[in-house]
Design a protein that fits this description.
Length: 50
């Protein structure tokens, strides 16, 4: 089951997942995949990570 989050929460989640433990840059597909695997979803997820 995925948790549908608000725009503000989505922005925070993207930043946290994107920075990661080492602060390395990951590609948009990898970022979206990590967010989905963490159990989060929002309608513009793939657009927002592009």
């Amino acid at each position: 089951m995925l948790l549908c989050v608000s725009e503000g929460e989505a922005r925070r989640i993207m930043e946290e997942v994107h920075e990661g433990s080492c602060g390395s840059h990951i590609g948009e597909r990898s970022l979206a995949g990590k967010i989905l695997r963490a159990g989060f979803f929002w309608l513009n997820l793939h657009d927002d990570t592009a």
